[in-house]
Each structure stands twice: as structure tokens, then as C-alpha cells.
Amino acid sequence: MYLLVLSPAASITMVNGEMNIFPAWWREACSVVFMQAFQVTGLWLIFNMIAAGNELGDYIKACGLIFVLLKGPGWLRQFIYSTGAGRGMVNAAGGVGKFAMYKMMTKKALGG
Predict the structure, then answer these.
(1) What is the dihedral of CA 52, 61, 34, 92, to 10 degrees?
(2) Would you say the pTM of this structure is higher than 0.70?
(3) Quick check: is 16 in a domain?
(4) Mean pLDDT over all residues of the chain?
């Protein structure tokens, strides 16, 4: 919800270049989206392991997945900020956003 509220401010700062919060917002948005999908899948696996657990190994695997689900967001955020993956996503999104803005402005300016 926090990222959704800040999205207009992030897009405006991308266009005008002042206070550029778009790269940080984009990295956080990507990490949240990917991590939520991973967490939902992980929770489904954990519930299935616990519900159908016939052996001690199933419960140990479920506990391991719980640990991964708790530590996963921090690991993903660290990966996105420490590697070039986050920077590449920000540059790609910025290029697409600027192209869309230029196209819209030229369309309005030419009266189309």
C-alpha cells in the first residue's frame, strides 16, 4: 500500500530529475512483487507439508521453508541493491516511461 501511494511522486520525480526517488521506489516495488509471489507459493507448500506430513522430515522441511520465508525479503532486497539487476530494471523502466511521456507530449503538441 505504501508503494502504491508513493507511485505518483516517484513517477513525477523521474520526469523532472529532482529528488529522484524513482530508482529506490522501483527496486522496492520489484522486490515486493517477486517476494509476495514467492511467499504465497511457499505458504502453500508449507501447509501441504504439514497437512500431509507422515514423517518427521516433512515437518523439518516445513520449518526450513518458514525460515526462508522470513529471511527471504531481506535477501532479495540485498541482492537487488548490491548487484546490477536492480539498476538494469530501473534503467529499463525509466527508458520506457520517458518514451511514453515523449510520445504523449508530441501527440498533444501536434494536435493528434
Answers:
(1) -140
(2) no
(3) no
(4) 75
